[in-house]
Amino acid sequence: MYPGVGGGFKVAMNILNNGRFGMVAALAGTIRYSIHKAVDHAAQRLQFGKKIHEFGAMQEKIAQMAIRHYVTESMAYMISGNMDAGFKDFQIEAAIGKIYASESAWFCADEAVQIMGGMGYMRASGIERVVRDLRIFRIFEGTNDILRLFIAMTGMQYASGDLKEIQKALKNPVGNLGTVMGMGTKMMKRRMGLSTGVSLQSVVHPDLSTAGNQTAQAIEKFGATVEQLLMKYKKSIIDEQMVLNRVADAAIDIYGMVSVLSRASRSLKNNSPSAQTESHMCQVFCEEASLRVDNNLAISTSGAAHKRFEKMTAISNHVVQAGGIVQEHPLGF
Q: Which residue intervals define the domain Acyl-CoA dehydrogenase/oxidase C-terminal in the entry (predicted)?
């Protein structure tokens, strides 16, 4: 029997991982198509005596679409590198890529329609079919909602293992002095807001040093927050899905930051013709992603946010019990 009794689940997971990776690569092409359609229209459409791509509002849309494509494609390269190296344990990376790619493809197609205006609705434009076809990608190969919980919980399992190791070592501190001192010092530094030694400066291009620092700080904060959440909730963390969603979003952004840093550094080192633009995309993404990471991690440990989550639970329960909208019409209808 292949692959042996009890091995079927691993086979199923590997099939899903390959499917999710394939989706990332395919959707990178879809995003490229959406950008091409949007740019082609923006470069020709005249308004107020200017091509619309000359206006700041359009420039921001086009830039964000290009950045989303760059991150998606960089994630695909990163995951394929793991696969080519023979790694079997890349389910978190595949899940992250699937979520980011499917949501970015939807974002870019939607923005392409917005840039094209009414023309975007026309079948002849080619973009309206993309919008119709894209919606399913956030559902199959694992819904993005479930994958977010998978990312957060799988990552926390590793962190939980580290905490169990130090708890076990504390039962015999003399015999496990190295473990106690090493992990204890690391945890204390995090509590005090000090660095535990994470640095990317030796592997990123000097032009991207700020982005490298932002990524290293995000990794530090992520580790500290996960430890804090595990110590607070313990096994009941599995029931805190609103918290887990924020943790997953932070993990997705951090993986994106690492992916673009690696690719942009290589382009700068090799003097690629697109190196400067890649550097700009990397810097913008890392700056914005670091802000999102800070916000999501702060929310996940905030007492005020927890109370807000409780209110949202109550609202949902009331709406379900009522079978729809709860509030009365202000005019009494």
A: 6-154
Question: For 205-224, how does the pLDDT look when each residue is reduced to its tens digit (9 = 90+)?
Answer: 999 999 999 999 999 999 99
Tell me: do 75 and 101 sit in the same domain: yes
> Around Cβ 206, how many Cβ atoms within 10 Å?
9
Do 308 and 161 lie in one domain? The reply is yes
- Total tally of structural domains belonging to the chain: 2
**Pair of tokens at residue 285:** 């993404």
Task: Show which residues are catalytic.
Answer: 141
Residue among 43, 205, 179, 42 at smallest CA distance from 112: 42
Do β-strands 50-51 and 46-47 pair in parallel, antiparallel, or remain unpaired?
Answer: antiparallel
Name residue 47's beta-bridge partners: 50
Predicted TM-score (pTM) of this structure:
0.87
Q: Which of 117, 142, 167 is the last residue of a domain?
A: 142
Structural domain that includes position 42:
8-142
Q: pLDDT for 168-185, tens place per residue?
A: 543 444 444 444 444 444
Do 170 and 309 have their domain in common? Answer: yes
Residue 159 CB neighbours (<10 A): 16
